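tool=predict chain=A
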Amino acid sequence: MYVLSDQNVQNQADQVLSGQQGRGLKRFLPFFGPALIAAVAYIDPGNFATNIEAGSRYGYALLWVVLWANLMAMLIQTLSARLGLATGKNLAEVMRERYPRPVVWFLWIQAEIVAIATDLAEFLGAALAFNLLFGMSMLEGALLTGVITYVVLYMQRYGFRMMEMLIGAMILAVSFGFLTQIVLDRPPAEPIIYGLLVPGFADGYAIFLAAGILGATVMPHVIYLHSALSQNRIKVREDKDRARIMRFYRLDVIIGMALAGLINMAMLILAASVFNGNGETSVASITESYRLLSPLMGHDAASIIFGFTLLMAGLSSSIVGTMSGQVVMQGFVHFTIPLWLRRLITMVPAIAVILMGLPEQQVLVASQVVLSFGIPFALVPLLFFTANKQLMGNLVNRPWVNWVGALVAAIIIALNLYVLVFELT
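tool=predict ok
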């Protein structure tokens, strides 16, 4: 089981549930954290690539896509947390209990492939950041990324609070980096507001990029992970306590996803203002962005800040990707391997890609295509399980949630199929 015990958090939660803890921030703190870890998946190097190209090519016109993608993410991650809290099991474990063995093995294998593809992009993003910032070779950057992420993952033995604080610090560093760049650039407010509120596509490729933004936002591995993060975090004895905890988890999701959404918007706004605003409408790669930012913004630190945010995003998302892989294996087949071995296994594809010298943009696109295959296998069962009264008890979805969830799933699957067709033809 992934979730580690933290007695201080349990004691604080018990005080809140018993009414001993008053109003204010202290009541929320014991339940804050799972969505923050899940939010890391929404700011990984794949998001960098899609948001940069969207802002460079179309200015602020696709900001509304980022907004709606994150609203969808809020719903999906809420359902994932709800499943873990209601059942005391993560999504993979519920699948294992309720599906035939051959189906379970198929779902496990595809989930492992998705986890490896996810970690590939995130691993390469961190290695690329080391390359851009410090002049390391991509291979040296990849090996250093492996060492750092293993050390951080090893900290799980000290409880989930330690991991949440480390991941939270990395997210705040990414947020601060993009906030600094926005302040330095001072983009105009009017086109930003218009781009957020007025939907539209300039051409067919804009639809493709919108699908890419959505595909890079909703990732299957974090659906499995979030249910694990909430499954036994707080020991619950009564249904009324479970309902109260879910209200706190919902707020946790809103904060975590809102932070990820603001970071994604900042990426696109920066690309729109700096690249599109200066006539650079074909910037599509992270490396090109790094090299152009300082000359176009007139600040020597601009590229360094961008590289730093990429490094923090790559490291944190790689950590979360490995955690997701552990959850998938434990949940589907009740089997675990040493953490160092899983870290080594997920490093191999990234090192192979580096040795082959493949361009980072091609690898990121290919990883998103693989991820799109995995979305229906995680999202559709999640919707069915959380709509099951017998399974969920008093946390079962309301009818309108089921309808909205079905609509969101249909949109995500349709757009990802569009990406697949577009890429493969």
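The radius of gyration is 21 Å. The CA atoms of residues 379 and 409 lie 7 Å apart.
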